[in-house]
C-alpha cells in the first residue's frame, strides 16, 4: 500500500501533462517576437489555405506580469505561439485539420490545460481562430458576492471567429513570429 501511495503523485503529475493528440510535445516552448508595422497579410498561395491564430488578452491594468504565452498546434505538432493581443498565420493543405491551443506555462488557476477543435479547409480560404485569456483579480468579495479573502481566476477559451472579426483583429492586433526555444 505504501508503494501505491508513493506512486500517486507521479501518476497525477503525468495526467496533468497529458495533452490532446492535436497538440504537440508538452516540453516545447517558444520565443515570441513582435513584428511592428507589417503590411496586411497576403491571401494564401495557390492550392493552400491559411489559418490565422489570434490571441486576445484581457487583464487588469495593475497586473504587470499577467501575459501568457499560448502555443498553437495543428495535427499533433506545435506551429507557433502568441503572447498578449497578437496573431500569426500558418499555411496548410486543404482538408481536415485538428487544432489545439495550450498555455506554455499552465497555471493552477486554469480549469483546463488545452482546447481542441477541427476544421475542414479549402484552398484559397482563410480561417480565424482565437484564444481568449481572461484574468480576474478580486478582493475580499469574490464572484457572486462570496467572501474569499481575495484571489484571482483565469479563464481560457478557444473559438472560431467570423471572417469580418478575424480581418479586424489582424488589422488591430500585433503580428508575431515564434520559434521553439533550444
What do these coordinates show?
This protein has helices at about 1-15, 165-170, and strands at about 30-35, 50-60, 70-75, 75-85, 85-90, 95-105, 115-120, 125-140, 150-160, 175-180. The N and C termini lie far apart (about 40 Å). The model is unreliable at about 1-15 (pLDDT under 50). The radius of gyration is 18 Å and the shape is globular. Helices cover about 15% and strands about 45% of the residues. A six-stranded mixed sheet has the order 1-10-5-2-8-9, with helices on one face. A four-stranded antiparallel sheet has the order 4-3-6-7, with no helix packed on it. The protein is mostly beta strands and about 180 residues long. The longest helix is centred in the N-terminal third of the chain and has 15 residues, at about 1-15. The protein is built from two helices and ten strands. The protein has a single domain, classed as Immunoglobulin-like.
Summarize the entry for a quick read.
The chain is mainly beta and 182 residues long. It has two helices and ten strands, in the order αβββββββββαβ. The strands form two sheets. A six-stranded mixed beta sheet has the order 1-10-5-2-8-9, with helices on one face. Strands 4-3-6-7 form a four-stranded antiparallel beta sheet, with no helix packed on it.
What distinguishing features does this structure have?
four-stranded antiparallel sheet, 2 helices, globular, 182 residues, mainly beta, six-stranded mixed sheet, Immunoglobulin-like
Task: Please state the overall shape, judged from the principal axes of the Cα atoms.
Answer: globular
Order of helices and strands: HEEEEEEEEEHE
Q: For the residues shown, what is the average pLDDT?
A: 80
What CATH calls the topology is Immunoglobulin-like
Unreliable stretches (pLDDT < 50, length at least 5) are: 1-15
Cα(first) to Cα(last) distance is 41 Å
- Domain tally: 1
CATH architecture: Sandwich
Strand order, sheet with most strands: 1-10-5-2-8-9
CATH hierarchy, class: Mainly Beta
Which structural class do the helices and strands define? mainly beta
The fraction of residues assigned to DSSP E strands is over 45%
